[in-house]
Amino acid sequence: MSPNPGSQDGSAPNLYGLDAQGLSDYIARFDAPAYHGGQIYRWLYARRSFSPEDWTDLPCRLRTAIAESAVVDPGRIVSRSEATDRTVKFLIELRDGRRVEAVYMEQSGRITLCVSSQVGCALGCDFCLTARMGLERHLSAGEIAGQVARIQHGRQMGDRPFRIVFMGMGEPLHNYDGVLGAFRLLTSPDGFGLSRRRITLSTVGLAPAIERLADEPVRPNLAVSLNATTDELRSRLMPVNRRYPIARLLAACRRYAERSGDRFTFEYVLLAGINDAEADERRLRRLVHGLPVKLNLIPFNAVEGWLDYRPPSKSRILAFRDRLLRAGVPTSIRWSRGAETRAACGQLALLPLKPATVAAERDSGR
Fold it and tell me: Which of 114, 125, 253, 345 does the annotation list as catalytic?
């Protein structure tokens, strides 16, 4: 089924985010042949052209009709902040005035774009700043893909290759249809033209959605946030574990691997004194045994005043990794990037620098 072209604010429909069939359905009202929908699709996603007057292989009458009846709005960049490591955080405003954050990262010539899938998040992970926002709404496929288009233009990336991670604000599998719709735009040969292998989806562990993803004919790489080796601790850190405990999550991951034939990643946020002991490492080894998985250790990115956790020392992080490697578990470390601009993993949120600011604004009536 084609996406609904209706806009978030109820005014003129927004064509950005529609697939080729949806675009053909829309222009049928102007008695335009269906093949023009495919032409518009290429203008929107392959050429990143958002002005109907520039779609020169369409009849002038059709271009005028589209410009007068609809909008093409992938969102707009309202601000950006750059860290000393060249990480750039973008604040992107959507058509209804809501905003999300997305991040450009570059390391050793490799570019990665981290995009959001929701305004806020409903899953409530205790170590994630986005969770403090709560959930405002899902993003549409166009609003997700639009972050990529805007960053490409904002950074003047041209034809430089890049990767995409659905690891920004929100839980991607909670917005399954929006995220998979964006994924199809990004991987379509007539769209952005990216390889599926260049796109990774990170989830807190919505087990039924992981199993559903395995049955997709084309799917992104999968990364699952594990973060604890006992149900007691994981339920405290990640409320989703109360519904899908570790055994259920592992079963879903096993089925995912069997059905899809894909390897996947377990992400493990290291919290000092919480989940970084040798006993945690031993349990982690047992949990991943026999699974086609690699581990990505993520030292916690602190947020002063908001989150009551801290990362382990570098030596402790390295020791944790080395024990896993010696045991034959493929393991890497994702070191923090962009933390000084609150652009690192777990730090994206439309919140002030300190919680006290919220109270001060509330007390002053702002």
Answer: 345
Q: Which one of the listed residues 101, 171, 267, 281 is annotated catalytic?
A: 101
Answer yes or no: pTM beyond 0.85.
Answer: yes
**Is 213 a residue whose pLDDT tops 60?**
yes
pLDDT one-digit tens code per residue, 269-291: 999 999 999 999 999 999 999 99
CATH 3.20.20.70 assigned to 76-358: yes
1-73: CATH class: mainly alpha
Q: Known catalytic residue: 278? A: no
Q: Look up 101 and say whether it is catalytic.
A: yes
Strand ranges of the sheet holding 199-203, from the earlier edge strand across to the other edge: 76-82, 88-93, 99-107, 110-114, 163-166, 199-203, 221-225, 264-270, 293-299, 331-333
pLDDT (tens digit per residue) in 50-97: 999 999 999 999 999 999 999 999 999 999 999 888 899 999 999 999
Tell me the domain boundaries of the chain: 1-73, 76-358
How many Cα atoms within 13 Å fall on the side-chain side of residue 145?
Answer: 30
